[in-house]
Design goal:
Helix content is 39%, strand content 16%. With 350 residues, it is an alpha/beta fold. The strands form two sheets. A six-stranded parallel sheet has the order 2-1-3-4-5-6, with helices on both faces. α6 packs across α10 and α9 crosses α11. The N and C termini lie close together (10 Å). The mean pLDDT is 91.
Amino acid sequence: MTIFIGPTKKPITGQSKSFYLTYNVYDKKKSLYCYPPKSESFFLLKNIIFYISYILTLPFHKGKKVVYLTSSRSLMGFFRDALVILYAKIFGFKIINHLHGADFLSFRKKSKLKPLIDYVYKKINKSIVLFPKMREQYAMYPAMEVFAINNATDFQPLPRVVSINREGLTVGYLSNIMYSKGIFDLISAVNQLVDNGYNIKLIIAGEILGDSYLNLESTKSSFLEKIKKPFIEYHGSIDGKQKQLFLQETDLFCLPTFYPTEAQPISIIEAMLAGCVILTTKHNYLPEMINEKNGYLINKNDSQSLIDSIQKEYFSTDYHRISSYNMQQGISEYSFNTYATNINKHLREQ
């Protein structure tokens, strides 16, 4: 029996999508528990009671016992995870931890609870990271087995139909609408290029959320004001057929992110599979994923490089080669079937 403990499906994040994909592809006996979203603070009494009540049932699961969890790097999230890890270990559970962010090292370094963090994490048997280089996040725990598995997606793109003589450029942004994801920089860059006579359309999709830079209310009011342009379309949160059509229309997929925990965005994988040219930033582990063969890799918070790269793609005659390369790489490195095989292999080994 493998018990999956992770986030709810909403709000949609890379971590929540990956968690449910992992749960769905695992082909042995399993159980699922979702902890409350951030909007319902973990420290609300009812949530504490429900969470602890569930944890107390762990010893009564029959068969070989494994807990799979997507670890948090916030203080509240750490306490939530620690309850599971320490209690489950008392009853002989194996613990598998899946790290989706790039910030465990910084979380540990800044915390005043470093000895407690180390005590808890030394109880973890295996950790999954997204790139081989990300093993550095857990280098201080030599007894922990750390292995890399690329993210994957069950997204099925529509065939890409692009005219050889492309007129104009459609720029697409598909991620949560957050200041640190670079959406405001992107709107500003496209706005400047359109003012200079370029035929560019900007399509945007994603749920509006707050972050450490700008809260939800401020993000929403500023974003909705800035997109009041005839060349900008906002589609809200999308999935399924809407996402297929969105990425089919996108020529240049832009994610100029400086989001602190960014690691291996699923939205970029989906854009690659759809044959989009990719533009993103030299931030955290993104250079392990994207280089000039995929499109453009720029410095974060570099507005001029963002403008220059979009302008370069506007005149590019290399679109079809890059599009084909991205589709092939998406299939070879981020295959759903390969992911399912790797996840099942490592979870069964416990």
